[in-house]
Write a structure and sequence with these properties.
about 65% helix; mainly alpha
């Protein structure tokens, strides 16, 4: 029932916040569950065909790329900036925004994804492929990076790209 699913998500959110910090893995779990509950309870609202172009949503895309890059290289700003630049060039050639990842990344990413969810399906695919470049640019895909990309793809209603063949880092 709706109220039990809503209560489950609320309870898990409160548990994740007990230490006053939601880490990457907790964020992924909560967002994945929220997307599944949304799709279950409101199927008509979960997969609208968007009409926006990636160029018109480029600020949201840059925000998402910067956050994904930071999550993949939390202790290496130059590597994160490099991954960010590669992703942006992959998805929107010729555009060179400045790299900046907000320290308060979770609500910022949520807002960016809400904007990117309005993309035309072909541009959602471009955005997802760009984000995949972000996480694969160093040749290693961590569990956290893979889960974050999976959650983003679920939110955008876009299948995740294949990341086979890359070494996996320890969790």
């Amino acid at each position: 029932p709706r109220n039990e699913l809503t209560r489950l998500l609320d309870t898990l959110t409160r548990l994740a916040r007990v230490d006053r910090h939601i880490d990457l893995h907790e964020y992924c779990l909560l967002r994945a569950l929220a997307v599944q509950i949304r799709d279950l309870l409101t199927p008509s609202a979960s997969a609208p065909a968007g009409t926006l172009s990636l160029r018109s949503c480029r600020a949201a895309f840059a925000t998402a790329c910067a956050i994904v890059a930071r999550c993949g290289s939390p202790d290496n700003e130059p590597a994160a900036a490099s991954a960010f630049r590669r992703a942006v060039q992959q998805a929107i050639p010729g555009w060179c925004p400045e790299y900046h990842a907000s320290p308060d990344w979770q609500p910022v990413l949520d807002r960016a994804l809400a904007r990117l969810a309005k993309l035309h399906p072909a541009d959602k695919r471009k955005a997802v492929l760009g984000l995949a470049v972000t996480i694969t640019s160093d040749g290693v895909v961590t569990v956290g990076e893979a889960e974050l990309l999976r959650v983003i793809c679920a939110y955008l209603q876009c299948p995740p790209p294949t990341l086979r063949g890359l070494p996996r880092a320890a969790a």
